[in-house]
Design brief:
alpha+beta
């Protein structure tokens, strides 16, 4: 079984919304062969809690406006370290960069087919590592002062 056309449509709109809010490392997996509860996962991350919240809000707004989709469940708002949006057909994970590295969801789902995403979303690959390196360099420069 593969992800439905509806699931792919939801994933693409959500991925574009995440890219519009400067999410890092956006990737989607077709998990329909291994899970019966959903067709696809979208993963995205951001370097701070405010941006995690902003990305989740944008995804929710775009899916509602463009496709009339509302999440049946939303978790993680309080801390905004890992927000999960469950649309039944898809599940969106927006994680703080530290949680993304620690939980490494990509490792869990690496055997599932990767879904093609809009170009803006693909362009976010590697941005998390770039941001971490830049922050590390800035901190090191500050320590030298």
């Amino acid at each position: 079984m593969t992800a439905t056309d509806r699931s792919i449509e939801l994933i693409n709109v959500a991925a574009q919304a995440a890219a519009d809010k400067l999410a890092h490392d956006i990737i989607a997996y077709d998990v329909s062969d291994v899970l019966s509860i959903t067709d696809a996962f979208l993963l995205a991350s951001a370097p701070n809690d405010r941006q995690v919240k902003s990305i989740s809000d944008e995804i929710e707004e775009k899916l509602s406006k463009e496709l009339g989709a509302k999440p049946v469940r939303r978790e993680g708002d309080r801390d905004a370290r890992w927000i999960l949006l469950d649309y039944v057909d898809i599940v969106v994970h927006i994680q703080h960069s530290e949680e993304r590295v620690f939980y490494a969801l990509e490792r869990l789902w690496k055997d599932c087919p990767e879904l093609d995403l809009p170009e803006d979303a693909k362009a976010t690959r590697g941005k998390g590592a770039e941001h971490a390196e830049r922050a590390e360099a800035e901190q090191a420069a500050g320590d030298l002062r």
